[in-house]
Amino acid sequence: MRAKLSYAMTAAVLVFYFVLVGSRGVMLIQAGTLLTVTFGVAVLILPVIGVWFLWKNTQFVRKANALAAELDAEGGLPVDDLKRTPGGRVDRDSADEVFALRKAETEAAPEDWRTWFRLAVAYHDARDTPRARKAMQRAISLHDGRPLEAA
Predict the structure, then answer these.
(1) How many C-beta neighbours within 10 Å does residue 71 have?
(2) Which residue from 117, 125, 118 is spatially nearest to 88, judged by alpha carbons?
(3) Shortest CA distance to 59 belongs to which of 20, 18, 11?
(4) Alpha-carbon dihedral angle through residues 85, 88, 94, 99, given to the nearest 10 degrees
(5) pLDDT for 110-131, tens place per residue?
(6) pTM for the complete prediction?
(7) How far apart are CA 116 and CA 106, in angstroms?
(8) Long-range contact set of residues 138-142: C-beta below 8 Å, sequence gap at least 24
(9) N or C: which end of the chain has fewer CB within 10 A?
């Protein structure tokens, strides 16, 4: 719940920022000189890119949460029994052991979105966020029946 609230607050702040920047871009365009119109258009590009990125990221999070809920209903969510450091972080050796298991599981069933979801969680626990995201995207693609991109 805390993560959802944090995400919502961050998204709200970003939307406010996009509106603020966009209004400044419109004001520059309304000034009507070649220089201000050029700057105004350039300034408007930032909120457009930001809104697109926020939308894509929100869709990704919603789909990943839906997969988690479905996997939980099936009783297939990975159990978090990893060892932790005194500071609360996942112990690297413990994460590596689970990762090896999840990787072998995924190699044995590469067309099963469930194995890719669990592999994504293992990547996340091993602090490899880019690969965690790619594995989750693969899980989402398999679940939705879309063709897979190259890994």
Answers:
(1) 19
(2) 125
(3) 11
(4) -150
(5) 999 999 999 999 998 888 899 9
(6) 0.77
(7) 6
(8) 138/113, 139/64, 139/67, 139/113, 139/114, 140/60, 140/63, 140/64, 140/67, 140/113, 142/111, 142/112, 142/113, 142/116
(9) N
Q: Which of 88, 24, 11 is nearest to 57 (CA)?
A: 11
Residue that has been written with the tokens 């979801």 in this structure: 117
- The number of residues in the chain equals 151
Q: Exposed, middle or buried by CB within 10 Å (0-12, 13-18, 19+), for 74?
A: exposed
Listed in sequence order, the residues at least 6 apart from 116 whose beta carbon sits closer than 8 Å to its beta carbon are 106, 135, 136, 138, 139, 142
- Residue 95's pLDDT band, with cuts at 50, 70 and 90, is confident
